[in-house]
Design a protein that fits this description.
two-stranded antiparallel sheet; 17 helices; disordered N terminus
Length: about 400
Amino acid sequence: MPRRTIGLLVTGALALALAACAQPAEVSTEPPHGWAAAAPAEPVDPVVEYAEARLADMSVRERAASVLLIHVPGTDPATLRDRVASSGVAGVILMGDNTADSVATTRALTAGLATDSGLPPLSAIDQEGGIVARLPDPGPSARALAGLPVDDTRTAFADRARLVADAGVDINFGIVADVTGDPTSFLAPRVFGGDTDAVSARVAAAVEGEQGIVLSTLKHFPGHGGAPGDSHRLIPQSAMSLAKWRTDEAPPFEAGIAAGAELVMMGHLRYTAVDDAPASLSPAWYGILRDELEFEGVAVTDDLSMLQASGESDLVDPVSNGVTALEAGADLLLYVGPIDTGAFAARVAQEVERGSLPLSRLDDAALRVLELRRAESASDAPYVRCRDVCALAAS
């Protein structure tokens, strides 16, 4: 081949190569390239991190016990502390026999409750004001606040929250989000009235008043006012459609959730258009609470002992009722009446082994409760698994 032809070919190839180099290269930064820029790490929530570490170190029975909130009668701090510590429950609800209508007596109980500063047990109380109060409370009831400006509700519940906090109590089961204008209802003295919008505004204000002082609870979901009757004696029932529930009963709960309520209490109420089961035992209602109302906090049952008081034959076993509530979606199971915590934990472990209760459901509930407890702790020390430390020391 002539030298000139070779030269032209070389020159052309070089030009093509240079042109190709001039084009911007498309370089993927996706894995598996080790040199790719790493995505910024998500910040770690220390409360969640601690709770997850504790959960990982708990047996199934321990996890089961950790979702119970029980009542221990009396005013002896040692009795209360020992029962909580030995059973591994989440904490206690304080009733009149515990508080003796005294802030000082209640404070003595709660001050000695914790045996682990990193994960203190929860304490809860029904301090609505008016006819439902376990501590001396001069503040206005919900009925009185219904006729006053909304700001008065915010002030009243801030004062009420300080009263509860002064007694050393973490959770107030005190915000009634039910709607009823029926003056003959047992709820009448306890609600903010019968107008849905007015009740919603006051529920939100009550939550805002309690924020940063105690943990707020909205009750009784999906709305006791829409299901007449006293749930302490029977299972109130309503044929209300879901569409009507959304306009008449749901808004106060939506307002309270938007305001930051940490807990919602599930009522023993049948809305048969949605489910024949009481809401406290109904996967459908827990689903509505989570998916429609977008509640991410702790779903606590109303006192499960009340189900037994209904006299319905399939609700006579307190352990079975608790397991059913847990399966349905409850996180925290409230028992004012007696409950054998060991039998409950054993039954849950059995249901998990059988596969009828997914371990993920138990873990979801236990983790929410652990996070709530850790958030109430003054400690920021990380959780250390004792058996690892002990094994290292012994080697």
